Structures are given as C-alpha cells and as structure tokens.
Amino acid sequence: MTDLWLHLRTSVLLYTALYLSTCFLVGLTSVAFHVFVVGAMICVVSFFRLPAPDPISALSILGSDPRNLDGSPVHKKSSSIGGAATPGSGHNVSRIAHRAAGLDAPENSLEAVRLCARGGARCVEFDISFTADGHAVVFHDDTVDRMTNRSGRITEMTLDEVRKLDIAEKHVLKDEFSPTRVPRLDDFIRECLRLNLKMIIDLKTYKSPEATARVILELFSKYPELHTKAMVSSFWPHLIYVIRSRDPKIICSMAWRPSFHAYGTYCAIGGPACRRFDGKMQHYAAMAADVVLKWAVHDCLWYFLGLSAVLIEKDYLTIAYIQKWRQRGVRVIAWTVNNSLQKLYLNNYLGVSSMSDTMDQIPESVLLSSSTNTNESKLELNEGGKLEEETSS
Question: Tell me, what's the pLDDT at 183?
Fold first, then answer.
C-alpha cells in the first residue's frame, strides 16, 4: 500500500508540472487530451521506474541505522558505515575517508588508502575520471592544476602522461609522499578489497554516460563482491539511471547540495561562492535548474531511481530533514566533516555517518568528558530571558 501511494504521489507531482508547462506553452484545454497525457505518463513512470535493491545488500554496505519511523527525534546511537554493531550499541564516530582522506595523504591515491585504513577508516570515497585514450583513473578535478605543477585537463592527457604526474607536489606533506602517482581504477579497487574497505564510487563523468556505465558494469562483473562492498554515487541522476537500469542490484546514492548548478562552491552562512557561469542568462538558467533539481531529488528522483542513500552537504542537515529520509528507508550521509565535534554531533545526535578529509580526530572520551576545573562557567537564562554567565568555584 505504501509503495502504491508513493508511486501515485510521485507520478502526480511530476506530471502535474509537465501538464501545466504544456498548457502554458500551447494553450491546450481539452479534457480528453489531459486525461490521455496524464494516464500515458503514469504508465511511462511505471515502466521505467527502477525498484530499490535488496535492503540486505544495502545494509551490508551502509551498516546499521536507527530507523525510528514514527517521526520521533533520534536518541539511539548508531554505528559507523560498514560497522557490525546494532543501533544503541555505543558511541562511534563515522570513519568514511573522503577522497581517501586527502588531508592526511595525497587525495585519491593508493598511499592515502593504506594510510586511512591504518587510521581506522571503514569506507573510502573516491572519484573516477577518464584519460584521453579512454582509461579510467581515480582523480577528482577536471584539471591537474590544483594538485600538480602542470596544467591542463585530465581528459586531454593520455594514461602515460597522467601516470607521470606527481600529485604530492602541492600537498602539505610533500616531503613524505612525493612522488605519488594517479592510480588506475582497477588498481585502486583491488587495494580497497585487499584492505577490506567499503567503497563509495563517485561519478562526475556526466558527459560520458555510456563509457561510465560500461566501466562500472565491468567492475561489478569482474569483482562480484562489490555488490555488497561498494555504493555508486553521483550528482547526476542520468548516470545512476543508466547504471541501475542495466544492473539493478548495484546500490546507488545521489549527492546533493543547494545551488549545485549555479555555484561551484557552497557556504550555508552567506559567504562568497564561485559562480559557474559569467553570463547572466546562463547563471539565471542554472539557478532555475537548481530549483527544479531540489524538488526532483526530494520528491521523485529518489523513488524513480531506487536510491538507497543520499549524500548531503553537512550544513543542510536537521533532525526533521534526516527523519524525512528515514521514513522513506533512505540513508543520509553528510559531507565533508573535518571537525571532530561535528562528527560526534552528526553520528551520536543526528544518527548519520559522515565523510571526512582526515582520519585524525580528538578522542571521543575527551569531547564527552565533563570539565574538572575548579572554575566552571555556565550560561543560564535570567528572568528577562537573557543569557547570563554563572561562575562556580
């Protein structure tokens, strides 16, 4: 009954928008036409919608989660991603290495994978790029400028040229890691499997959906254990659809943050952001696309694509927001969280896992311990509703 309601709600929302757009553009008012169009569109959604994969497989990758579906606030503590503990089993800060913990070692490198595994990571998030001769490598940026002393787009370099780059040249720990090479995707996957690490494979190759799908499907065919060890994720829904339509057993998530199309960076408190487009019309079109994407992700795409999780920018998360996803059976993972206190808050209070650029953290016992100083300050409300500082000695 729940699935039927979700299907009908998704269909109505999606095609009401299309219906109104059609009326606005061509002025059609025929009742018979509208009945036909809406009915046809519901049939289309039913045919093309991808069912969510087996929740047991998702659980093996994402770990346990406190699914209090009654909408009440989260009180139980959940284990980190990939953990074997059950909800309420204790305190544990998430250990997901974003770009293989790129602050501790050159990001997306084999050296970084080995280091974060020794540092207690249970899951590694990494990115895929293509070289000019069609090889898949693990690299995040479109260009090599930020990480090396060379410049240029990685898609315009051959594999041999990319493999000669030293991605430790601009790292703060250059002396310790230089030279570090861009790894081939297959080598990276094998190393993660050897170290028994779960994986989040991030896809930004939106201009090459067929090549991307082919690489991912070949990986899951070559290493069948990836079905219970790896989750595929992307900001781009068409990549997810192409992959899951050909292998519905693959666990997928979608990443989202506000103003993704209009701005290259995001600051929740109004800081400066980098516009993706200089032209006004392009910028306004991107802003409109962001409005549509926000609605689509939260109201229909998650259901249409059969998502098991969503990766959300940390500053957007609230208890009510996370609980909305829990009621749908969709997990929330926060990014990118480099502050130890934030990690503890997200894991223990909001009950979500988080990705971090570093595996170094302040021990939880220190963060949770009460002050033993003789002079202890507390903030209290006075009768007028204002904060006052009370000092006890």
Answer: 98
